[in-house]
Structure formats: C-alpha cells, structure tokens
C-alpha cells in the first residue's frame, strides 16, 4: 500500500508521549480529517473514533482508496451525525497505517521503518494521542465522542480518563474488556500473519515483501466474526458461485467462500499487516475492569457525561450482554445513561451499515441534547 | 506423521466404488477397529462414526499416538456404549489419514502418493465404504449407528441410504446441511493450509515438506468454533500465561492464546493437511435437503429406525436449532424419534467430554431398547 502523503492532513506532536508499556514516543504524527465547520464557540465538535480496519476518512471519499469513507452511512449533511451542525473530527489511531505514527512509519531515531520495533500501544495510548489533537484544535470540550467496536472502546476509555472533556458519549457495539473468545479470534489472525514467510519477522517493508496471504486469512477470520449466523445464511446460504453442480474441487463452490476470499484480498491492498498485529493487540489488552481493580463502575465515577449505549441483537463479537455490563456499571454510579439494543440480522457489522433504527437513535440522541449542552 | 501399518487393521475392497463426484475408486482400503465381541447372532453391533479429527481408535489406547482414543468417555466396559454388551466398530473415513484410502496413501494406478490427486469424497461416499465393511464382517443389521459432528452427518446419511441396516441411530451435535457459517469456518481453514508455501500445491509428502503452520492455524480456527464463548470465558477468561504484568509483545500473554497454539501444534503431529482439506470439503458438501429436492423428511421416508437426537445448548457450530430441523423432519414422517438438548457450557466439544447427562442419555437409549431389537 502506497500512501500519497499530500492527501493526508497531519500534526506533529513535539512533546514526548509516555505509553502504557513504559516506553516513550519522543515525537509523533497524528493524521486526521475533519468534516463540517467548527463554530465560533468551538462547542460543536464531535470526536469519532475508528475501528480496527478504519482510518481518519470517516465520510466523503477516501482520497487514498477512492472509495466511500467507512462511516458514510452515519456522518454527513443531515445524517445521524449531521455535518451541517457538528464539526466531526476523526484521527487515525496510534499504531494505524494511514499516516499516524505506527509500524509503517519512519522511526525518527533510526530513520528506518519501525516495523515491529514500534512499541506496543494500547487503547489508552490511542486516546491520549487524540486528546493532544483536541488541544491542538483548541477544543476544550467536545459535544460528543462516538465510535463502534474498537472505536467504542476508545469512547469508554476517553470518558474514563477525561471526565470533563466531553458532554456526551456514544459507545457502540463494544465491550469494557476483551473476552477469551475475542482474544482467540485476534490471536488466530496474528498467527496467520506471522506464519506467512513474507512477514519476514515483521521486516517485510524493508525487504520489499508483503504477507498478503497471512493478512488476507486474518481478515477472513475477522469477517466471520463480524457477521451473524443468521445474516450469513440469509445473504449466502448454500448458494453456489456458479449455476449448476458442485465442482468437486477446492476452488470456491459456494458464494460465501468467494465473498470471504474477496474481502481478504481487497483488504491487503489498503491495510498493513503489522498494523493489524498492533491494533488487535491493543484491543486484547483493553480491560477497564483491570484498570479499576475489577470494579468497572470506578472507571466512570464522578462522570457527568451523558451516555447513549448501543448494541445489536445478533452481534456475537461484542454481545448485548457486554453492553449491559457497561450499562449496569454506569447505572450503579448514577450516570446519565440510555441504552438501545437494535434488533437486526446484520451482526457486529451493523454499526457500519444503513440500519435505520440505529441511525435514528444516534441522530435523536445528538440533536435533542445539543441545546442543553450549549446552555451549560 | 509416520504410521506403523502393522498397528492398523485393514480390509481391502476389490470392487470399484463409484463416488458421488462421478469418479471411481477401483480398489481401496478401509482401516478399522473393533471393541467388544460380536455375538453369535451378530446382532450386537454398533457402528460408530468419527468426526473431522478422529480415526478408528475410538477407545482404549491409540497405538499410533499412544494417547486415549477420542471417545474413551463414551465407549468401553460399562460405559454409555457398553463394550461388555455391544460390538463396536469404528472405521477411518474415506479421505482420512489413519490407513483408509485417502490423500496420504499410494494411488494403486500410479504407485505415487495421491496427494490432491485423490478424488473428492462426500459423506455419502464415506458411508458407502463403511457399509462394505459391515458386509465384510457379515453384519446385516447393526443395533445402532452413532456419531457426533461429522460422525452425526454420517449417521443421518446412513439412515437415509440404508433404511433396513440399523435398528436405531444416535445423531449427535450435527446438522442435515452445512450452513454458510460452517462453510466459512472450513474455508478459512483450507485457505490457511493452502496459503502455506510448505503445502506445495498439495505435493508436500512427495517433496518431504509439511504445511505445519497452515494446518496449525486451521486447527486453531476449529477449536474456536468447538468451544462456547461461556466455556472459553470460564476456562480461560483473561488469565495471563505468566503471573504479573502484560508482556507488551506478540508472544502469548493470555492462557487462551497458549491453549490455541498448543492445540494447533499438537494436531500437526497426528493429522495430515490434505486430509483436512478433503474432510472439511465433504462436510461442506453435505446437504440432505438438496439430496431430497429440498424436503428433508424425504430423506427418512419409510424409515423404521428408532432415532435419539442429541444437541448441546451452547454448541454454536451445530446448534440445537439445526437438530430441531431434523426432529421436525423425522416427526413429519411419523418416525420413532426422541430428542435431548443437554444443558452445558462446553459447546460443540461436549460430545467428546465427560458430560454425565449426555452419556446417561446415550446409555439409557441403547440399553433400554436392546431387548426389543433382539425380539424382532
């Protein structure tokens, strides 16, 4: 993947960032994008956090891939996150591969590509980096922070760390702590990448190689977990790729096989394998329980943030049960929280899709609370 | 994997077997094992079908691996399938890698190892081969046929094809048709194997290579699907491999990671990668609906077989809902069928474990009906 850096907006942070691992990034770059206009009072900002495979190009056209932004369903003029009203900021996460400092970038100390010399980063590190971006933009308090999946984890982490920097928060299809099954899927993905000889112990960019097969298999595993059994059955069932009979070979017979292979191959063109290792690891390490001595509600103690928690009925990666644990924790400290479970067949992927009830919930929550925020 | 053929009991079938693909196996070998004693009337035989990773060594000690047989929990003296009473037969399936003709064996026509020149086989082909073994043993009618997972598919296929060759049948944790999600998991596994350069287009045995990494990743994917989310959480949760802190590396931090890697690596020592391709393909092709023009009940029309269907509450690979579809089909043609859903945390793996209620159900069904069978 070659990125035209001219198409990417960045800031360089020239103060050291202390990472959770104990290591320090002396200076680093945040690549980001904004949508809509920041008003005079700087009180219409919404920080959107992206998920594992996302980037800063949340809506409009992604200038690198030429395709729609990953959250074009939700963000835009008159959409759920209305860019006529709000100023939406989205930054590539630390460890990502769309311009923010990560394994694909040059280590300023060695002038070499980081590769796996890049230090492990956590969800907390990602959030800390993005708060520096808010500082840079002069935004003291966002109206809201929003994100699904890994983006939702960043929402929770942000609210836990910065209790006065957002008025509201929308954590979607996420968890306060990666489960054993979540870790298992990610480990499968990492093993697939690292088993590919082209991975070259993480040095493939220096040696001009690319673990395409490994990353593609990792992505296939991801896609299986993003879709529900019901959704897969409805979308593909046992329909054959070619009309007529089975091929009696190992080529793709079934449409679901072609779909997965296509998704795997397409991903390799726009994502970096080491970045996939780093981001999945960050998700596995995420554990707001551990951070709070086992008591999740402590993460949100004294929070004045207004929460809208959203889950999807057939999401088996981050189940409704996980959202309910967050709901219970928030309720137990008297937080202002509403909760919606959207009934859908589309599994975890729902947050990226045109799910009317979901988008209506987001829009309703944002638009109905905005005047209250401005009055404060 | 090197198999000492002296430790394996085989028969050679010298008549051609017409496969579903249209190809023919001119002559082939069935490796099998028996447990208990066939009585004079030859009416105490139970045919046990193995699952994807199994073989003919269902109980006792597997002489090749030195470990317990895969169904030692269920088969043995005084156990659920009581070898004091019954004569249990278990054969390695066609396409397997424990002595039955499959990709690891020599093609009698070319004198070379088959590899991926072996024709694709189906569940129906496997069952047809095993019926020839029954013929060889002089067993006209078994008292029962039993199996879980791919073994359960063979039970269903056997009952559909041979309506007078078994008195009873116990299909466990299976489906009448592989779902899109089932196919997706298997395709992920196959892609992992075929992406390994050591696979060598299927010729690794000839070239003295071995796609260890690919097969190991395939097995990891399998294990994720065999365990339930609840079971994984109870067994591993987020417990760390080493006491104390996270390592901030890509080594195994969590016990669930080590478990999966261990399972993957251990499997490679006892299983063949091409065989894994063939057997997963056979499962994907299994579709009793298609075979019966979309009407599952037609598969069992005029069946006098007494069925005991068993599913496990947390099995998300072959769900209780799938078993209920079979139950409905059997009921709709007035078949003699009972159904048990075992409540357990152990997911699909339950059928291999010491699950008391499950084993009691099997034992009760077998022992209470045996006298009726003998009276007939």
Termini separation of chain A comes to 46 Å
User: Averaging pLDDT over every residue of chain A, what do you get?
Assistant: 96
CATH class label of the largest domain in chain A: Alpha Beta
Largest sheet of chain A: 8 strands, mixed
Order of strands, main sheet of chain A, comes to 1-4-8-5-9-10-11-12
Could you give me the name of the CATH homologous superfamily of the largest domain in chain A?
A: Alpha/Beta hydrolase fold, catalytic domain
Pair of chains with the largest interface and how many residues each contributes = A-B, 59 and 58 residues
Count structural domains of chain A: 2
Query: What name does CATH use for the topology of the largest domain in chain A?
Result: Rossmann fold
Structural class given helices, strands, pairing of chain A?
alpha/beta
**Percent range for β-strand residues of chain A:** 15-25%
Show unreliable segments of chain A: none
CATH architecture of the largest domain in chain A: 3-Layer(aba) Sandwich
Q: How much helicity do the residues of chain A have? A: 25-40%
List its traits.
homodimer; about 375 residues; alpha/beta; Rossmann fold; Rna Polymerase Sigma Factor, Chain: A; 2 domains; 10 helices; about 35% helix; about 15% strand
Tell me about this structure.
2 copies of one chain form a homodimer. Helices cover 34% and strands 16% of the residues of chain A. Chain A has 376 residues and is an alpha/beta fold. The first copy, chain A, folds into 2 domains: 5-178 and 288-375, Alpha/Beta hydrolase fold, catalytic domain (Rossmann fold), CATH 3.40.50.1820; 183-280, Rna Polymerase Sigma Factor, Chain: A (Orthogonal Bundle), CATH 1.10.1740.110. In chain A, the strands form 3 sheets. In chain A, strands 1-4-8-5-9-10-11-12 form an 8-stranded mixed sheet, sandwiched between helices. In chain A, α1 crosses α2 and α4 crosses α6. At the A-B interface, α3, α4, α5, α6 and α7 of A face α3, α4, α5, α6 and α7 of B.
């Amino acid at each position: 993947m070659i990125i035209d850096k001219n198409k990417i907006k960045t800031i360089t942070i020239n103060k050291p960032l202390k990472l959770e691992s104990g290591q320090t990034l002396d200076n680093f770059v945040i690549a980001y994008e904004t949508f809509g206009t920041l008003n005079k009072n700087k009180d219409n900002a919404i920080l959107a956090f992206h998920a594992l495979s996302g980037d800063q190009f949340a809506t409009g056209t992604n200038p690198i891939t030429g395709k729609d932004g990953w959250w074009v369903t939700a963000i835009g003029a008159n959409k759920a996150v209305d860019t006529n009203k709000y100023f939406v900021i989205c930054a590539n996460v630390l460890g990502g591969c769309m311009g923010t400092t990560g394994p694909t970038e040059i280590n300023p100390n060695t002038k070499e590509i980081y590769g796996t010399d890049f230090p492990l980063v956590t969800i907390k590190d990602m959030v800390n980096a993005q708060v520096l971006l808010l500082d840079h933009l002069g935004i003291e308090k966002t109206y809201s922070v929003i994100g699904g999946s890994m983006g939702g984890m960043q929402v929770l982490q942000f609210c836990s760390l910065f209790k006065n920097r957002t008025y509201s928060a929308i954590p979607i299809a996420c968890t306060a702590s990666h489960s054993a099954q979540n870790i298992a899927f990610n480990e499968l993905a990492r093993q697939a990448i690292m088993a590919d000889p082209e991975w070259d112990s993480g040095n493939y960019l220096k040696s001009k190689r690319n673990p395409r097969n490994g990353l593609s298999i990792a992505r296939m595993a991801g896609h299986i977990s993003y879709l529900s059994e019901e959704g897969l059955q409805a979308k593909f069932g046992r329909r054959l790729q070619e009309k007529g009979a089975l091929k009696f070979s190992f080529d793709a017979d079934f449409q679901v096989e072609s779909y997965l292979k296509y998704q795997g191959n397409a991903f390799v063109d726009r994502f970096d394998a080491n970045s996939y290792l780093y981001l999945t690891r960050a998700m596995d390490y995420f554990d707001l329980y551990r951070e709070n001595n086992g008591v999740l509600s402590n993460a949100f103690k004294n929070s004045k943030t207004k929460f809208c928690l959203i889950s999807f009925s057939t999401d088996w990666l981050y189940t409704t049960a996980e959202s309910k644990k967050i709901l219970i924790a928030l309720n137990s400290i008297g937080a202002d929280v509403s909760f919606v479970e959207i009934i859908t067949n589309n599994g975890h992927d729902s947050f990226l899709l045109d799910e009317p009830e979901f988008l209506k919930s987001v829009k309703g929550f944002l638009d109905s609370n905005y005047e209250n925020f401005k009055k404060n």
